[in-house]
Structure formats: structure tokens, C-alpha cells
Design a protein that fits this description.
Helix content: 25-40%
Strand content: 25-35%
Order of helices and strands: EEEHEEHEHHHEHEHEE
Number of helices: 7
Bound molecules: adenosine-5'-triphosphate, magnesium ion
Shape: globular
Structural class: alpha/beta
């Protein structure tokens, strides 16, 4: 792997069996993500986006192929090794955010540190909260925040372990255009700090503003020349 490549997939496949049928959810996918790149992954429902996100998040393992993260081939890693890779390299933003409603914003951000048994460093937490633009809202319970602010908390929480790769599944599902643009601006700031951002989305305007688009269909990447997204 080149020096600034954080993730590389080669002939990556994920097959599921459903009864007697084999579902080729991912059918030989090749790509690499460099440090600080913002990559959008688009494609119709069932094209394999979530499957791919789950693999690169180390939440699932491929049927075959190679997946290199931070210089290690994680394909045959045991669960304990996958957990270590997740903690070291990856921050996730789930579509539903999964905040704990009655905890303060700041307490939601601290959760991954508690899970990882890392010290609660106030300065670090406040810095992350500032990065996502939530300074002053630390002591508001999560349930009282707007959708956009909830998302910022989810991003702050994803950033607290200082990941190299930030992975977001459908981050703009329910957000207004203004919030989407703010989100994109935040992703750009993060990318300037060397964090790579990987976004699965149905929002083609968001995708168009990413540095690069990966277009999936039937578990395969459609080459740029053949993708309708560029015409
Ligand atoms: N656990 C599973 N068992 C069997 N088939 C599965 C499983 N998970 C996904 N699939 C199938 O794999 C294919 C890809 O699904 P995936 O969820 O990755 O698509 P997607 O692009 O994320 O779709 P959407 O846009 O609807 O979220 C689909 O045909 C789906 O039915
Ligand atoms: Mg999906």
C-alpha cells in the first residue's frame, strides 16, 4: 500500500445464502481510499452499499478478497482483532444516531472513551465539541437538541477516539439543505486534518460535492464512463 492509502479493497466479495439462493451482495469490488479523501458511495437499493460499509467498518467479514486497513489485511482477523482495528481507525455515524436521550450532549460524546476504558480528557472532549460547532450546548440533554445538532453530537462521538476513517451511512436522510451543507463543510474541515470520510447516500447532490463517487450496482462498481451520475 502507498504511504497515504488508509484503506484498500481488492476483489472484495460478500455472498449471502438465502435458502437455496446465493445473493452476491458484493461481487468483486476494487478501490483504495487515501488520507483526507471524501468518498461518496451511491447506488440503488440493494446494490450493496450497507454491505460494503459493514465490511470496511469491520462489523462483518468478506466471503473472499482482500481488505487492507492501516496496512493490515483484516480479512481473516478474529473478532478481538477487528474490535481493536475499529477502535484505532474507525468512527461511525449511524443513520439513527443512537444517542442516549437523557444524557447531556457532552456525556454522549464521552461514551466511546468509557467503552474503550480510556481516560476522560476534558480538553479533548471540548475540542471535539467545538470542531462540530456545538460549543455552549454541552449541558443540554440529547433529546432536546434539533436533528442537525443531534447529528453533530453523533459526529463528535465518532471523532472522540481520533479515527483515521469516518464512516457515515445515509447521514443526510432527514436533514434540511442548510444542515446538509453545514455537514459537508464539517467533513471538508475533517478531511483537511487528514481524516478520510466515507459516506453512503441516496442524496446525489451531496455525492456530487464529495471528492469522489463510487457508484455501486448489483454488488459491482460501475466505471465512471458508464455511470449515469456523470451525464
Ligand atoms: N444478512 C443478509 N442475508 C441475506 N441477504 C442479505 C443480507 N444483507 C443484505 N442482503 C442482500 O444483499 C444485497 C445488498 O444489500 P445492501 O443492504 O448492502 O444494499 P444497500 O445498497 O445498502 O440498499 P439500501 O439502499 O436499500 O440501503 C441485497 O440484495 C440484500 O437483500
Ligand atoms: Mg443500505
Amino acid at each position: 500500500m502507498g504511504d497515504n492509502i488508509v484503506l484498500e479493497a481488492k476483489e472484495l466479495k460478500k455472498y449471502y445464502t438465502r435458502g437455496s439462493e446465493t445473493v452476491k451482495a458484493l461481487d468483486g469490488v476494487d478501490f483504495a481510499i487515501s488520507q483526507g479523501e471524501i468518498v461518496a458511495i451511491v447506488g440503488p437499493s440493494g446494490s450493496g452499499k450497507t454491505t460494503l460499509m459493514n465490511l470496511i467498518s469491520c462489523l462483518d467479514t468478506p466471503t473472499s478478497g482482500v481488505l487492507n486497513i492501516g496496512g493490515a489485511d483484516v480479512t481473516h482477523f478474529k473478532e478481538s482483532q477487528l474490535i481493536a482495528i475499529r477502535r484505532k481507525y474507525i468512527g461511525f455515524i449511524f443513520q439513527q444516531f443512537y444517542l442516549i436521550p437523557n444524557l447531556f450532549a457532552v456525556e454522549n460524546v464521552e461514551l466511546p472513551l468509557i467503552f474503550a476504558k480510556k481516560p476522560i480528557n476534558r480538553d479533548k472532549i471540548l475540542k471535539v465539541i467545538e470542531t462540530v460547532g456545538l460549543k455552549g450546548k454541552e449541558r443540554i440533554p440529547a433529546y432536546m437538541l434539533s436533528g442537525g445538532d443531534k447529528q453533530r453530537i453523533a459526529i463528535a462521538r465518532a471523532l472522540i477516539n481520533e479515527p483515521k476513517l469516518l464512516i457515515a451511512d445515509e447521514p443526510t436522510g432527514k436533514l434540511e439543505i442548510k444542515v446538509r451543507d453545514q455537514l459537508l463543510e464539517l467533513f471538508r474541515q475533517l478531511s483537511k486534518k487528514g481524516i478520510s470520510v466515507f459516506i453512503a447516500t441516496h442524496d446525489l447532490e451531496l455525492a456530487a460535492k464529495a471528492g469522489r463517487i463510487i457508484h455501486l450496482q448489483d454488488g459491482k462498481i460501475i466505471p465512471k464512463e458508464q455511470s449515469s451520475l456523470y451525464h
